[in-house]
Amino acid sequence: MPEFARISKRIGAIAESATLKVDAKAKGLQAAGRPVISYAAGEPDFATPNHIVEAAVLAARDPKNHRYTPAIGLPELREAIVAKTKQDSGTEYTAAQVVVTNGGKQAVYQAFATLLDAGDEVLLPSPYWTTYPEAIALAGGKTVEVFAGSDQNYKVTVAQLEAARTERSKVLLFCSPSNPTGSVYSREEVEAIGRWAYEHGLWIISDEIYQNLTYDGVKAVSVTEAVPEMIDRTILVNGVAKSYAMTGWRLGWMVGPLDAMKAAGNLQSHLSSNVSNISQRAAIAALTGPQEEVEAMRESFDRRRKLAVAELNKIPGWVAPMPEGAFYVYSDVSGVLGREWGGKQINTSLELCDYILDAAEVALVPGEAFGPSGYVRMSYALGDGPLLEGIQRLQKLFA
């Protein structure tokens, strides 16, 4: 008999989520009694607003939610997503162009799986969310990284994208506000990138999960709003996880051209079928109900953002640009690398984060999770007290 590998090469090649790995390690240390402060997880520390929870409780008691529903999502929720997309993304769609997914991650995966054939290239601005390359590889695609450092506020240019484009380039992944950097592209930058993509026949998958978390009057402009010609070649990915403190509810969606959404819906009908009806009913309440608590959360993030950046920049060799969106600070730590700390030479951000966790009991995610070494990501989606205490530990460690 032929010998078969126990695990498929395709699945065996997938790397564990670096952010979840660091977060799990931090939680394990906390459970063991160590006073670890973790900035690893991209998860709001707030409770889901009460009116959303109450909608879910009512939904759980209604027998109609105990049954299968359409694989692409409840009609009422898809209509609410259409209204949200028109308001915030400046683009009109129909409910038939919406697929409701088990969180934004499933939407990202399905978008790549829907568009890519083996060997197709995806231009991926770096630093990038750790899941993108794995989803691209699972779909048979090839990642082509395009790096922008802190000197560019982590935003790629059309010239960089054009230099990376080949005849195999099919998709550009676009994320603004960005995870991990918090950078937000201006309307002019979005328009320039969108027109370039249109001229070269590229698709854009635009991850808008942090769309409503922007500061200082900044607006996250959608590519379909800036360049309407791209509507037929763009898939928008979004969800309720970040803005509504609903990470555990697993409710996301994708919006795009009818043929692409039909294909994605067919995939989902075999992959997972419908998302939990309870979460869908909760999402309807989130999108159509009062928004005061959401705004209060955003204001808290804004306050923490300013505090984190001001305190981090007091650390010698630590450069923390001010993010305009999301809830992350992405620091350039090259100034503290190549030196001896704690009795040993530290040359990479991975080594640096290991040292910080051991010496200061602070968990950060190294730049290697998002692209090149030399950077660290800090989530400021945690209480004001722990946020400041953890940074003060860093200040003391690197004094």
- CATH top level label of the largest domain: Alpha Beta
User: Main β-sheet: number of strands, strand sense, barrel status?
Assistant: 7 strands, mixed
Number of helices: 14
Count every beta strand, where a strand is a DSSP E run of 2 or more residues: 14
Unreliable residue stretches: none
What does the average pLDDT come to?
96
**How large, in whole angstroms, is the Cα Rg?**
21 Å
H/E element sequence: HHEHHEHEHEHEHEHEEHHHEEEHEEEH
What's the layout of helices and strands?
Elements (H helix, E strand, L loop, with lengths): L8 H4 L5 H14 L5 E2 L11 H12 L13 H15 L8 E4 L1 H13 L5 E6 L4 H8 L3 E6 L10 H7 L4 E7 L11 H13 L3 E5 L15 H4 L7 E6 L12 E4 L2 H14 L5 H12 L3 H21 L15 E5 L6 E3 L2 E3 L2 H12 L1 E2 L1 E2 L8 E5 L4 H14 L2
Parallel strand pairs: 1-12, 3-4, 3-5, 5-6, 6-7
Antiparallel strand pairs: 2-8, 7-8, 9-14, 10-11, 13-14
Helix pairs in contact: 3-11, 4-11, 5-6, 5-10, 12-14
